[in-house]
Design brief:
Helix content is about 60%, strand content about 5%. It folds into 2 domains: about 1-110 and about 200-225, Four Helix Bundle (Hemerythrin (Met), subunit A) (Up-down Bundle); about 115-195, no CATH class. The radius of gyration is 20 Å and the shape is elongated. It has helices at about 1-20, 25-45, 50-65, 75-85, 100-110, 115-130, 140-150, 200-215, 215-225, and strands at about 160, 165, 170-175, 195. The model has no long low-confidence stretch (mean pLDDT about 90). By secondary structure, the protein is mainly alpha-helical. The two termini are about 30 Å apart. Strand 2 (about 165) and strand 3 (about 170-175) form a beta hairpin.
C-alpha cells in the first residue's frame, strides 16, 4: 500500500502543476521513479520478467503515442512512473493487466466525457457572446462537431488553431485540428482552437479507479454478472 500512497502523492503534485501552469517539471517523475524502484526492491515479491512481459502492451502504446505525438510528454511519463511505482494491485490479485495499464484504460474512458463538458462550456460562452458563432458558413453537422471538440478561445499550452477564412472571407472550422499532433511549442492562436486538456487530473482519477476496481476487464465482468 505504501507504493500506492507514494504514487498518489506524485500524481497530486503533477496535477497541481498541470492545472496551474500546464507545464510539469520532470522532478515528480524522476523522484517517483527512483522511489518506486527502491520500493520495488524492498516490497515487490512477484516475478520481474513476467511483469516486464505484461508491461509490453502498455509500453508499445506509449512508444507509438510518443512517436506520433498522440499524447503529451508529461502524460507518457506519468504512465511510465506509475508502472514503476505500482507493480501490483493493493489486493495482490493476479491479472493480465498491470495497474498502470488499468489506469491508462480508466483515464481514457473518462476522456470520453470531455466532449460533453466542452459542449456545455461552449454553449455557455456563446450565450454570453453570440458573435463567437457569427460568420461561419458551415452545415449543422460541422457546427455540432465544433461545439463538441473545439473551443472558441485559446485556453492553454498545446492548443491547435482550428479556424480559418476562406477565399470569400467566411469563417470556417478546421475540424482536422481535432486529430492534429500536439505542437512542439505554444502557438499564438486566435479564434477557435482544438484545446489541449490537462490530462494529469484524469490520470489521477483513473489511478484511483484502478486501485478500487482493479483490472478493468475483471471489474466489467463483475459488473456484468
Amino acid at each position: 500500500m505504501i507504493q500506492w500512497i507514494a504514487s498518489f502523492i506524485v500524481l497530486g503534485i503533477a496535477t497541481y502543476y498541470d492545472l496551474k501552469q500546464r507545464l510539469i517539471p520532470d522532478t515528480p517523475w524522476i523522484v517517483g521513479s527512483i522511489l518506486g524502484l527502491l520500493l520495488d526492491v524492498l516490497l515487490f515479491r512477484g516475478d520481474p520478467i513476467r511483469y516486464l512481459f505484461k508491461f509490453t502492451p502498455l509500453g508499445l502504446i506509449l512508444l507509438l503515442s510518443w512517436r506520433w505525438k498522440l499524447m503529451g510528454e508529461a502524460d507518457i511519463l506519468a504512465y511510465l512512473t506509475l508502472a514503476v511505482m505500482t507493480p501490483c494491485y493493493p489486493n495482490c490479485v493476479e491479472s493480465p493487466i498491470i495497474p498502470a495499464f488499468a489506469t491508462f484504460i480508466y483515464s481514457k474512458l473518462l476522456l470520453l466525457f470531455v466532449p460533453l463538458l466542452q459542449l456545455t462550456l461552449n454553449l455557455y460562452e456563446i450565450s454570453k457572446d453570440p458573435s463567437l458563432m457569427e460568420g461561419f458558413d458551415e452545415p449543422f453537422w460541422r457546427k455540432a462537431l465544433a461545439l463538441l471538440f473545439l473551443s472558441p478561445k485559446k485556453r492553454g499550452l498545446g492548443d491547435v488553431p482550428a479556424e480559418r477564412l476562406d477565399e470569400r472571407g467566411r469563417r470556417k472550422f478546421l475540424l482536422s485540428a481535432i486529430t492534429s499532433p500536439l505542437p512542439d511549442k505554444d502557438v499564438n492562436a486566435t479564434g477557435w482552437v482544438a484545446p489541449a486538456y490537462p490530462l494529469i487530473p484524469l490520470i489521477l482519477v483513473g489511478h484511483v479507479l484502478s486501485m478500487i476496481l482493479g483490472d478493468p476487464i475483471i471489474a466489467l465482468g463483475l459488473l456484468k454478472s
